[in-house]
Write a structure and sequence with these properties.
PAS_fold_3, GGDEF_dom, about 600 residues, Beta-Lactamase, alpha+beta, five-stranded antiparallel β-sheet, about 45% helix, single chain, Alpha-Beta Plaits, Diguanylate cyclase, elongated, Rev_trsase/Diguanyl_cyclase
Length: about 600
Amino acid sequence: MARLPDVISMDLQEAYDIIKQTNLVIFKWTMSGDIPTDFVSDNISIFGYKPEDFYTGALKDYWAFVYESDREKIQNLFYDLSEQNLSHFKNQYRIVCKDGEVRWVEECVIHERDSSGQLIHKKGILRDIHDAVLISEKLKESEAKYKELFDNASAIIFTFNKQGEITNYNKTFVETLRIKNSSENHLIEDFLTPYYRDHSLFTECVQKVGTRFELEIIDLEGQKKFVELNYRIVYEAGEPSVVHAVGQDITVRKLATEKVDFLTSHDALTGLHNRTYFDQKLLAYREDEEKPVSIIIGDVNGLKMVNDAFGHKLGDELLVRMALIFKSVFYAPKDVIARLSGDEFAIITERRHIEALIDRIHEKCNAVVDFPFKIDISLGYSSRRKSNVDIEGIFREADHQMYKNKLKTSKHIKATMIQTLQQKLSEESFETVEHTERIKILSEKIGKYLNLSETSMEELDLTAIMHDIGMISIPKEILNKRGKLTPKEMKEVMKHAEIGYHLLVATPNLAGIGDYVLAHHENYDGTGYPQGLSGGDIPLISRIISVADAYEAMTNVRNYRAVKTHRQAVDEILHLSGTRYDPSVVHAFLKSIEK
């Protein structure tokens, strides 16, 4: 039983009785020795003890009541606070119950000092807060788990208020927006495109509450991104106050969709619109017959020759360059530029003075000097100036005009390209003008001995000049290599006969000699290339060029072999007569050079 004074007032007794009904324990300690307990209330029974246990029992030293792990810390705090001029303080620690259970208590202490300020007593109230501490720890644990989930969620999580201030965000938000210093304060407007800077995102969210929408943002490195946003509005005093937002970065998906949409209506190579889009626009003009409109059709000249001579990569570059020229001339919002097929383009425009615009296209083509040939395009156009004119008819007329112009210029353009290719081949390899001229002279001698007709002699001359035109497509480092070619390099060189054939048949005035050029590396016994022809199946002109080219090559400087004398070259040709060379042509060759 707690030792109460023998005479206490009725009010104090009632107050004490009330305290006995609570979980509060009253203590009084005397500041002497081991700080013995001077008084402890009967409520100490909530921990399984009696007051007498603190007066004479094992707990006479109060520190034995304090849980061992907390004891040193509480002792130090107790003595530190005793030295300070405090009237009261509060702290928390654990105690050991009679049955060994460890529980949390909160201690509120009042210092009682004498007239000199010396501390003589401490009076305290001990309150069992164990359940509250456990709940608090669970809340902290729960909060820590929530914080971990919040920070490490793959979704973008952030909150912002009516003023646009970002009040909270997770790691994914930091990574997505490329925020280097996460302690900096940011406004949501810092990451928005101009539209949402002019139109408050907060207002937009309030107006679209209950929906999700795509938000275009810009990270701190200037990269545009797309976020699919879900959110809720937090209200204060009935007014929207804060937006809690969860977003998913859909940039990859969005760009993929945009790419698919782009490719649906655009040409992948040039970036111009495609045939499908062009036809849709034509349909719109068919339905609106009052609009004046012009259609221009263009066909790139010599694209096949470029592909054959230089490869499709340069052919593609030609198409891209042509597209850029179109874009530089037809830039009005309503202009539609489309690539209809491989080398065919079309333009729909409401602009006037079409002939002047076409002249500008040709001027820009002529201004291109970084291609190995002059680029050119045949163009035709037709316009609708009156209503009720069939739009398909306008298209057909433009197409017809284009083909008329192409017929006028195609031969000249292709001939010019062949001359350009010859010049380029002469500059980059052993195929000099002198080389081809010597082959031509020698071929003419053989042809005259064989009594070829005048027409055949003309074809022989052209073949002599053009026989190696296909070499233009062979890499320069192979053409000028010193020493023997590898099998792989030889395979590349062997392509030149077919390439030369394709170049020539695409040129109307040279198409007739294409077969001769194709066969000038066929062997009489059928072991040559590219078709493996033999005997009389090889055109006679090809057989003549084969002998003349061999003699010319052997008796003149080549990177891959030493020069042979006239006698050595003749002996080798005689040795291969009947296998590589036609014996009758070899005989004519020998007779012609005797003279």
